[in-house]
Amino acid sequence: MYILNYEVTIGEYNLRTLDSIEITKSVHNLSDEARIVIPGTLINRALEVESKIKRGDAVSIRLGYDSNLRTEFEGFLDKITTDDNTIRLECIDSLYLFKQAIADKEYKSITVKELLDDIIKQIDFAIT
Are 73 and 91 contacting, i.e. CB atoms less than 8 angstroms apart? Predict the structure, then answer.
């Protein structure tokens, strides 16, 4: 009989308790996304995750049976939300870095070449 197993790492922490994981990979989206849901309380004590993990921490999700785990998602923590006594960790793949590097601005009259040149300059500046 096979036993479903997981290994979820966020920053320097490994999750020991888990409610659910939902991974979305589609050609219709620009990025892969993962939603990790953990209980809001453990042994009648509220979990304090905000002091341990933060937005931008690296996320790795490995799933499989027994000890045969396979990496299903790698990315970054984008949001932490608490709803109905659960903690939801919204994750996004490497597009997260792209979102952080590009300034939020409006272009009035611009060509595609000018737009791409501006984006490349912003990315080069963010990486160096």
Answer: yes
- 13-62, pLDDT tens digit by residue? 999 889 999 999 998 988 999 999 998 877 777 777 888 899 999 999 99
Q: Burial code of 103-122, b = ≥16 C-beta within 10 A, e = fewer?
A: eeeeeeeeeeeeeeeeeeee
Can you give the pTM of this predicted structure?
0.79
- Distance from C-alpha of 1 to C-alpha of 7, rounded to nearest angstrom: 20
Do residues 10 and 35 touch, judged by C-beta distance below 8 A? Answer: no
Cβ atoms of 57 and 72 closer than 8 Å: no
81: its two tokens = 């939300």
50 touches 38 (CB < 8 A) = no
Vertex 115: Cα angle to 114 and 116 (nearest 5): 95
